[in-house]
Amino acid sequence: MSEHYYTPRPSVERDLHTIEEALRGRSFIFWTDAGVFSKKGVDYGSKLLVQTMVLSKQAKVLDVGCGYGPIGLVAAVQAEQGTVTMVDINERAIELAKRNAERNRIANVRILQSDLLAEVMDQTFDTVLTNPPIRAGKEMVHRVFEQAHHVLAPGGALWVVIQKKQGAPSAYAKLESLYSQVEEVEREKGYWIIKAVK
């Protein structure tokens, strides 16, 4: 398959269906489709990030590379008095994320098609969450880190999930070059959850 999920307009044939997932003590129904990341079920890394992330109830949150929405929608439930902006380059993912917000009755979200953070660079967030687009390459992942630093409020945190074999050590080093405080919050089955504070 020459095309991957990090593309504005997937050409792979549609395969729309629903999956059910229990995340942070709540059951979610998600529409998924061919041409989006982890279409058969929420991937282990995203689940680990969702279980580990710490958000205030009033947080202004950004989910980068939201896919069909599991991380951002769980964040919106956690930040029930805040707002979550969800961005992805993939128009099919954006369409699904909007349907999933509606399906799960989650209203405190904005869902935008955006090449990385391009559409939100003039905004400020308390927290940025990302399961970055590894298949798009290290340069792209590092751009997420740089752009997240730009949009974070002072003291704001970037939460990242990344597999050790897919570059967690180099990601950690890159984050240390940008952020004032970087820590590995969780490590499980080869996945690292890294928190970087501006």
From TrEMBL:
The protein, known as: 16S rRNA (Guanine1207-N2)-methyltransferase
Record's keyword terms, sorted: Methyltransferase, Transferase
Statement: the UniProt record of this protein carries the keyword Transferase: yes
InterPro entries reported in the protein's UniProt record: RsmC/RlmG, SAM-dependent_MTases_sf, Small_mtfrase_dom
GO function terms (MF aspect): S-adenosylmethionine-dependent methyltransferase activity
Every Methyltransferase small domain range: 29-195
Biological process annotations from GO: methylation
Matches recorded under Pfam families: MTS
SUPFAM superfamilies: S-adenosyl-L-methionine-dependent methyltransferases
